[in-house]
Amino acid sequence: MTTKISVATVFALACVLGACNSGNTPEPQEPEHVVAEERAESAQDATEENTDRAEDAADKAEDSAADSSESADKAEKAADESTK
Questions:
Q1: HEC states along 30-51?
Q2: Would you state the pLDDT for residue 59?
Q3: DSSP 8-state symbol, 24
Q4: Start-to-end C-alpha separation, the chain
Q5: Interatomic CA distance for residues 24 and 51, integer angstroms
Q6: What is the per-residue DSSP string for 56-77?
Q7: 29-79, pLDDT tens digit by residue?
């Protein structure tokens, strides 16, 4: 009788240990503040990149406006000369 109880106990213990070590444990998660900091850094980088792109676009628009103004001035001057 004692042998049956010992075998049953050993078998139960083996089952419990097998279940614990079966690889079904989830991977540890990073603390929330670390994830939040990483996301904030990523957002800051994206904001800086967008700001740089916007500044470049504004510079190109200013250059284009200046070129357009020069072209308009030349066209007016040519129109004035052609009417003389």
A1: CCHHHHHHHHHHHHHHHHHHHH
A2: 96
A3: -
A4: 127
A5: 46
A6: HHHHHHHHHHHHHHHHHHHHHH
A7: 778 888 899 999 999 999 999 999 999 999 999 999 999 988 888 888 888
